[in-house]
Design a protein that fits this description.
The complex is a heterodimer. Chain A is built from 18 helices and no strands. Chain A starts with a helix and ends in a 6-residue tail after the last helix. Chain A is 71% helix and 0% strand. Chain A has one domain (32-423). Chain A is mostly helical. Chain B has 2 domains: 16-62 and 138-187, no CATH class; 66-131, no CATH class. Chain B is built from 5 helices and 4 strands. In chain B, strands 2-3-1-4 form a 4-stranded antiparallel beta sheet. In chain B, helix 3 (66-92) packs antiparallel against helix 4. Chain B starts with 15 loop residues before the first strand and ends with a strand. Classes of the chains: A mainly alpha, B alpha+beta. Chains A and B meet through helix 1 and helix 12 of A and helix 1 and helix 2 of B.
C-alpha cells in the first residue's frame, strides 16, 4: 500500500515509500555514534570500582561471615551480568532463527551486549578462584569436601558436584557462549561493510543448532552456579527459571540502551514507537513467563510438601526473606503486569524505560532472594550496604562496558536485508 | 442520539439510508476517506475487497475501548473466582485435603488465573460482536446490485443519512468532488 500512502497529504512519515525514506533515516548522524556514551560508562565504572572496594572491605571488616556475605553479594552482581549477556545471546539467536524482520532495527544492541561474555568470564574468575582456592565452599557448600564427607546426599551427588567437573564446565560454557556471541556479531558487522546477504543465512543456520546448545548450557550453568548453592535441593524447573529472568532483564536493558540513544538524538525514525511497542510486549510476556515459571516451581513444591524440597522455601519464608518474596510477587509481577498492559506505556519510550529500570531493580531482588539466604551467619538486614554495593560492583563494571560498546559499530545492522522491513514496521493493534 | 434525525425520502417514497459512491482504485478511496473525515462526517463507512493499510487513520477512527472493558471484566472475573474459592474452602464446604490449612491462597491461584482468562476471552469475543453490531442479518447496501462488486474490484464509500452533517445535495457534491462515480441513494 506504500504507493497509495505516499500520495497522501496527511500521510504519516512511516507511510512514505520505504527505500527513499530509509536513505534519509539511515543518515550517518543517525546510525553512528563514534563518541559513544563515554561519560556514562566512566560513571558506571566508578560506581563499579567503589562497589568492588566496598565488597573487599566488607569481606574483611564485618566479622567471621563477612567473606561469605561479600562473596554472595558479588555473586548476585555476577549472575545479573551473566543473565544480561546470555539473554542477549539467546535473543539474537531467536531473532535470527525466526527471520524476524521487525527486529533488524534493534538487534545490534543485543549483539553488542552478548559479545561482552568474555568480560563476564573475567567477572566469574574471582568467585571461582576464591571458592576453589581460598574460601573452600562458603557459597558452594559441596566444595567443602572435609565437612561433607559424611553427608550421604552430597556423597551421592559427588559424581556431578565436584570441583573438577564444575570448573571444566564453566570454561567450556564460557568458550561456547563466546564463540557464538562473537561469530554472530562478526557476521553482522561484516555485513555492514560488504552487504553480503548470505551472511544473514549463515547467522540463521548457526542460530539453529546454537539455540539448542544455548538452552542446555544455560540450564546447566544455572544448576552449577545458582542451584548447587543449596546442594540438597533440586528443581527441574530451575534452568527455565534462570532463563526467564535473564530474558526479561536483557529486554529491559535493550529498552534502556535504545531509549538513551533516542534521547541522544540517534536512531530517529529507525527505532520507532512501533519497535518500543514490540519490545514492551516482549517485556510483558517475559514478566508473565517469569511469574508463571516461578509460581509453578513454588506451587508443586508447596503441594507435594516433601521436606527435601520445601527446605528451599522454608529458608526463604522467615527472618526477613519473606519480605523479598512478597516484594517479588507484587513488584516483579503484579504491578508491572498491569502497567505494561496499557498500550501507551509501551509506545512512549520514556515511560517504557521507567518500567524497564524498575524491572531491572526487581530482577536484582529476585537474584538476591535466591543467593542471599545461603549466607546463614549474617542476618538479613545486617550490613545491607554490603549487599547493595557488592551487587553493584560487577554489575556496574559490566554496564559500563555496555555503554562503552554502544557506538563500537553502526547502531543498526545497516545492510541487513531485513532492515527495510524493520523500518516500515507498524503495529496495527 | 437525543436529537431527532431528519428523514429524507426518495422519489419512490423509500426512506434514505445514505448516499453511496464508487471509486476505481484503493488510492482514490483512501484520499476520499481523508476528505470525508476532514469534512466532519461521523456516520459513514468504506467498503473494499481487501484491507487498506492506514485506512483507520484516513477515516479518523479512534482506538476501540474494548481492551479496557476486557481488562476490567477479566480482573473482575479473577477476583470473583478467588472469592468463590475462598468461600467454598473456608465457609461453604470446608474439607481437609492433604492436611493443608483451609485458608491458604496457593491452590486458588491456578483457578483464579483460569477464570480470569475465561472472562477475558468471553468479554473480548462478545464485546467485539457487540461493538461491531454483529450479528447483522441485513444491511441496506446489499439491496444494490452494484454494491456486490465491492467483494471483487470496486471501492465504495457510503455516508449515512443518520449523520448529523448529512444533506442529500451537499454530501453528494462532496463525493463528486472526490472523483466518486455512480452515486446512488440507498433505501433502508
Amino acid at each position: 500500500m506504500s504507493q497509495i500512502a505516499s500520495r497522501s497529504s496527511h500521510g504519516h512519515e512511516d507511510h512514505a515509500e520505504p527505500h527513499v525514506a530509509a536513505r534519509a533515516r539511515l543518515s550517518e548522524a543517525a546510525v553512528r555514534f563514534p563518541g559513544g556514551l563515554g561519560t556514562l560508562s566512566a560513571g558506571l565504572w566508578f560506581v563499579g570500582i567503589v562497589g568492588l572496594i566496598a565488597a573487599a572491605v566488607g569481606a574483611m571488616s564485618t566479622g567471621e561471615h563477612g567473606t561469605a556475605h561479600a562473596l554472595a553479594a558479588y555473586h548476585v552482581g555476577f549472575l545479573f551480568a551473566l543473565g544480561l549477556s546470555l539473554g542477549c545471546l539467546g535473543l539474537t539467536m531467536i531473532l535470527q532463527q525466526f527471520n524476524a524482520g521487525w527486529s533488524a532495527a534493534i538487534r545490534r544492541q543485543a549483539e553488542n551486549i552478548a559479545s561482552l561474555i568474555p568480560l563476564v568470564f573475567v567477572l566469574f574468575l574471582p568467585i571461582a578462584i576464591m571458592e576453589i582456592a581460598v574460601t573452600h565452599g562458603k557459597l558452594f557448600h559441596w566444595m567443602d569436601t572435609h565437612h561433607t564427607a559424611h553427608d550421604p546426599v552430597i556423597q551421592a551427588k559427588s559424581g556431578y558436584l565436584n570441583v573438577g567437573r564444575w570448573a571444566l564446565c564453566a570454561v567450556v560454557f564460557f568458550a561456547v557462549w563466546t564463540f557464538f556471541a562473537l561469530k554472530l556479531r562478526g557476521f553482522s558487522i561484516r555485513q555492514d561493510e560488504t552487504g553480503d546477504k548470505w551472511l544473514t543465512a549463515k547467522a540463521r543456520r548457526m542460530s539453529s543448532y546454537g539455540l539448542l546448545i544455548f538452552a542446555l548450557t544455560t540450564a546447566f550453568a544455572s544448576f552449577d552456579w545458582l542451584m548447587s548453592m543449596d546442594p540438597h535441593w533440586f528443581s527441574t524447573m530451575f534452568g527455565v527459571y534462570f532463563f526467564a529472568g535473564s530474558m526479561m532483564s536483557c529486554i529491559a536493558l535493550i529498552i534502556l540502551v535504545l531509549g538513551v540513544l533516542r534521547m541522544k538524538g540517534k536512531l530517529e525514525g529507525v527505532v520507532t514507537a512501533d519497535h518500543f511497542h514490540d519490545l514492551g510486549k516482549l517485556l510483558l510476556s517475559f514478566t508473565i513467563f517469569w511469574a508463571y515459571v516461578t509460581f509453578c516451581q513454588y506451587f508443586l513444591i508447596w503441594y507435594s510438601n516433601i521436606p527435601e524440597e520445601t527446605a528451599f522455601y522454608n529458608l526463604r519464608s522467615h527472618s526477613g526473606y519473606e519480605v523479598l518474596g512478597v516484594t517479588l510477587t507484587f513488584g516483579h509481577f503484579i504491578i508491572p503486569f498491569v502497567v505494561l498492559l496499557f498500550r501507551e506505556v509501551k509506545r512512549n519510550y520514556k515511560l517504557l524505560m521507567a518500567v524497564a529500570a524498575w524491572q531491572l531493580v526487581m530482577h536484582s531482588v529476585d537474584l538476591l532472594f535466591m543467593v542471599r539466604p545461603i549466607v546463614q551467619g549474617v542476618r538479613f538486614g545486617e550490613h545491607v550496604w554490603l549487599d547493595i554495593l557488592g551487587l553493584l560492583g560487577p554489575l556496574c563494571i559490566f554496564l559500563g562496558f555496555v555503554a562503552w560498546r554502544v557506538g563500537s559499530a553502526p547502531l543498526v545492522p545497516i545492510k541487513d536485508p531485513r532492515l527495510h522491513e524493520a523500518l516500515a514496521h507498524k503495529n496495527y493493534v | 442520539m437525543s436529537k431527532a434525525r431528519k428523514i429524507y425520502k426518495t422519489e419512490d417514497g423509500g426512506i434514505v439510508y445514505g448516499v453511496m459512491a464508487e471509486f476505481d482504485t484503493p488510492a482514490d478511496l483512501f484520499h476520499a476517506a481523508e476528505r470525508v473525515r476532514d469534512a466532519g462526517y461521523s456516520r459513514w463507512d468504506v467498503y473494499s475487497p481487501f484491507p487498506v493499510h492506514g485506512m483507520e487513520e484516513a477515516m479518523g477512527l479512534k482506538n476501540t475501548k474494548l481492551p479496557l472493558l476486557t481488562g476490567i471484566v477479566g480482573l473482575s472475573g479473577a477476583g470473583l473466582g478467588y472469592l468463590f474459592q475462598w468461600w467454598v474452602t473456608t465457609r461453604g464446604y470446608a474439607t481437609i485435603v492433604q492436611g493443608k490449612p483451609f485458608d491458604t491462597f496457593q491452590p486458588w491461584v491456578p483457578v483464579t488465573f483460569e477464570i480470569g482468562v475465561l472472562f477475558t476471552a468471553f468479554c473480548a469475543l462478545l464485546g467485539m460482536f457487540a461493538f461491531n453490531a454483529l450479528p447483522m442479518w441485513y444491511h441496506p447496501l446489499l439491496k444494490k446490485d452494484r454494491f456486490l462488486r465491492v467483494s471483487d474490484d470496486r471501492f465504495v464509500i457510503c455516508i449515512e443519512a443518520a449523520d448529523p452533517k448529512f444533506d442529500p445535495d451537499r454530501t453528494r457534491e462532496l463525493l463528486e468532488k472526490l472523483h466518486g462515480k455512480h452515486f446512488d441513494f440507498v433505501e433502508e
